[in-house]
Structures are given as structure tokens and as C-alpha cells.
């Protein structure tokens, strides 16, 4: 079951509102009908953009909101295509005018012709183009108005900052203690726990040793490690122990985060990838309200079989900045276990227009920052085969496919697949070369 992320929509609407619509408005200033239609676009899009965060949260439980987001996504891409047509026509006319001026400068005959015949926005071809665009513009306007009406009926509104009450904070701190205190039920692994403890305590080497716990995601490797970590005999045997956040060894310097932090760990349910991803986010978040909001998110309560994605991973994606969400979702067009280099991924993002240009920052440096941000949050990880390459964990790849929905399509040459009319990005995976 796919869910639409607001990331691609948010950025696409930004582009439409920032430059594309204004450029088209200037181009059709002499055409009253088109000008009024585009002005209506510009007035409605900001209201829709303001409710995207709310819509992304509500779609989890409400199919009507999910359908609304899918229709909005289609409309945004269609509107972008139409505005591209206006931009192309402007460039074509500019080139035509330039060519006409060059010819006129070398031809006495051309100098005698009226300006309207040698280029400009008032050429017969320009007029024909604008008239031909009227039905397309009207169709988008009708869909836009329909979405605006449906938005109200679905109860979508702009999410405003919440004023946290002391009662809610108190409730969060009264939750049961977590894995850090050893207060967890873990059945059927007593033998493995005892074996690990024995190995750790019987190691007489002066060198640092590493004891690895290997297994598929969700098997409880982290929970087992925590049980060993909290065992009384281990506490007595070792002078120092270290443990998942806040760039610190423990909560001693951040006591206000201790209770809610331990509760978040418990909600990760022993999955190391989820704990690492959320921990990477929390270590840069220094407000207690934000930690409590993470802990109380409804996403934790989603049944995993509803979408096949562990809630903790969905939550880590949900709190990514919009520009990183878009870049991450795009990566679903690659197959699982595909190893890639940083430069390769950045070039693709750049080609798709995903990188936000900033003053005094080179576009390649912006791409590097995006990439490293995703690495630091565990959405990408260094390949075990070659340190210069990266790979997405299978669970992260599943997450990317979920949030991308039908927008990204990956085709395999040995399978018959239907391409959705909603698809905008695609890749073809060939298992062998054709002879």
C-alpha cells in the first residue's frame, strides 16, 4: 500500500509559485482569458500547499486524503508541463525575433516590413499558441478548484505550532521505563545472552575485541545487546560501558531527556536500523517538546502489515526535511542491493532539479551536503564490499518505494509490468545483454 509524501509536492509547488507562474503571467499579459486563469492558479496553490503536512499525516488512516494527495500530485505535474510549454514558446519566439533582427540588418527589404511580421509576442503563431492553450488551462483550473473544495470537506488545515500543556508532558514522563533499565520481557534468548556474557568476561586479551550479533532486520539483535549491556554481572565486570544519542555516552548531562528517550528506544522494538535512524535525528534536536512529539506520534501505532514498513522507519522519513525526502524517494528507481557512488547520485539529483541553489554555494557542494545528510541519518550506508560505494538497506529501499508510490517506476526486462499513468521517473534493469 503506497503513501504519497508531501516532499515532491511541496518542492514542485514551490517552483510553480516562485517563477513558472509569474513568467507565464508576463507572457500572457495581453490575453485576458489566460491571464485570469493563471491568476486563479496563483491564488489557490498557496492554500493547498499550506495543508500538505496535515494531509501527509491524515492519509495514514484516511483513504480519502490519500486519494486527494494522489490527484494533487498528478495535477501539479500536469500544471508544470503546461508552464513548460509557455516557457518553451517564449524561448522560441525570442530566438525567432533574434534571427529576424539579424536578417533585417542585412536586408533592405526586411527593414521595410512591419515589426509584427518579424517576431515578438504579437505574431500570428503566438496568438494561435495562446488560443490553443485555453482548453488546457481551463481543465487544470477546474481540477484545482475541485481539489480546493475536497480539501475543505476532508478537514485539511494548516498545522500550527502547538502549545504544550504541562499535563501532556507529565503523561509522557509517566510511561514505563525502558530497555536501559533492563525492564523488558525478552523470551527465548537466555542461552544466547549467557553465551555472550561468558565470551565477554573470559576474553583475556589486552587488545580491543568485537563481538558481532548477526541476523536479519527485526530479529531482536539490538534488544539482545541491550540485555547483555544491562546485566548486573557486566556492570560489575567492566569499568566503562557506552550506548544509540545526544552525542553523549548516557543521559547524565541531559536528564530531562532520559525518560522520553528511553521510551523512544523501547518503541524501536529492538530494530537497530530504526533506532539508529531516529537517534541520528534526535541528536540534533535539543528541545524536549520535539522528543515528546516523536514519542507520541500516531505512526508508532500503525500495524506493520498495513504497508509492510516498520513504523519506526516511516517516522524517521517523516521528519526528514522536504528536500531530502524528495532525493530519498527518487532512489526507489534503483534495484535492491544496487551499489552506487556519491557523485553518481548527486549528478542524477542535479539533472532532475532536486538541488536547491543557494547564494555563494556551488551546486555540487549542495549535492554533497544532501548526500552526507542521508548517510548520517542511515538512509544510505557504506558498502561492505567497497568503501567508496554506498548501498540502501533492504528495509530502507522498501521505505523509498512506499513513499515514492507510482511516481517512480522500475522496470525489469524479464517481467511484464504495467506503467502507471502517474509515473514521472523510471529505470530499466537488464539482467543480461541482448545478442
From TrEMBL:
The Disease resistance N-terminal domain covers which part of the protein?
14-99
Keyword Nucleotide-binding carried by entry: yes
Domain named Disease resistance protein winged helix: residues: 333-400
Positions of the NB-ARC domain: 193-246
Q: Name one GO molecular function term.
A: ADP binding
Its keywords, alphabetically, are: Nucleotide-binding, Plant defense, Repeat, Signal
Query: What GO biological process term is on the record, naming one?
Result: defense response to other organism
Q: Does the keyword Nuclease apply?
A: no
Which Gene3D superfamilies does the entry mention?
A: 1.20.5.4130, P-loop containing nucleotide triphosphate hydrolases (3.40.50.300), Winged helix-like DNA-binding domain superfamily/Winged helix DNA-binding domain (1.10.10.10)
One Pfam family in the UniProt entry: NB-ARC
Q: Which residues form the signal peptide?
A: 1-18
Q: Record's PANTHER family? A: DISEASE RESISTANCE PROTEIN RP, OS11G0481150 PROTEIN
Report the protein name in the record.
Answer: Disease resistance RPP13-like protein 1
